[in-house]
Amino acid sequence: AVLYRVPLTWGQNKLPWKLLHAALMLISLILSILGLYAVFNFHNANKIANLYSLHSWIGIAAVALFAIQWVVGFAGFLLPCSPVLLRKLLKPVHVWLGGSILLLSVAAYISGINEKLFFVL
């Protein structure tokens, strides 16, 4: 999201910046999914229950919404067949949901630190 706040991007062709934004978000999504895979493997290997805390549910919700956001964003903003009216309607929702997903990921991060401190202390 910060990509669109850089003055270099203002007043230029938006397609390269949209493609860069989509690529960075796709990399983030793939890394998030790999992280979830690693956590589930670790829990299963050590016979720890999965999805037992608020931290895990917030994290799953954040990744699921992020995946939906990426697919809808790709279909709505990068496919040439998507109508301009759809893009105009989708943009505020896309921006709001992106901020909400960021806040969810911060909440998952903070609750994960609290959970770890609770178990250690």
TrEMBL record:
<keyword id="KW-0479">Metal-binding</keyword>
<keyword id="KW-0249">Electron transport</keyword>
<keyword id="KW-0813">Transport</keyword>
<keyword id="KW-0458">Lysosome</keyword>
<keyword id="KW-1278">Translocase</keyword>
<keyword id="KW-0560">Oxidoreductase</keyword>
<keyword id="KW-0472">Membrane</keyword>
<keyword id="KW-0349">Heme</keyword>
<dbReference type="InterPro" id="IPR006593">
    <property type="entry name" value="Cyt_b561/ferric_Rdtase_TM"/>
</dbReference>
<feature type="domain" description="Cytochrome b561">
    <location>
        <begin position="1"/>
        <end position="121"/>
    </location>
</feature>
<comment type="subunit">
    <text>Homodimer.</text>
</comment>
<dbReference type="InterPro" id="IPR043205">
    <property type="entry name" value="CYB561/CYBRD1-like"/>
</dbReference>
<keyword id="KW-1133">Transmembrane helix</keyword>
<keyword id="KW-0812">Transmembrane</keyword>
<feature type="transmembrane region" description="Helical">
    <location>
        <begin position="52"/>
        <end position="73"/>
    </location>
</feature>
<feature type="transmembrane region" description="Helical">
    <location>
        <begin position="93"/>
        <end position="112"/>
    </location>
</feature>
<comment type="function">
    <text>Transmembrane reductase that uses ascorbate as an electron donor in the cytoplasm and transfers electrons across membranes to reduce iron cations Fe(3+) into Fe(2+) in the lumen of the late endosome and lysosome. Reduced iron can then be extruded from the late endosome and lysosome to the cytoplasm by divalent metal-specific transporters. It is therefore most probably involved in endosomal and lysosomal cellular iron homeostasis.</text>
</comment>
<protein>
    <recommendedName>
        <fullName>Lysosomal membrane ascorbate-dependent ferrireductase CYB561A3</fullName>
        <ecNumber>7.2.1.3</ecNumber>
    </recommendedName>
</protein>
<keyword id="KW-0408">Iron</keyword>
<keyword id="KW-0325">Glycoprotein</keyword>
<keyword id="KW-0967">Endosome</keyword>
<feature type="transmembrane region" description="Helical">
    <location>
        <begin position="20"/>
        <end position="40"/>
    </location>
</feature>
<dbReference type="Pfam" id="PF03188">
    <property type="entry name" value="Cytochrom_B561"/>
</dbReference>
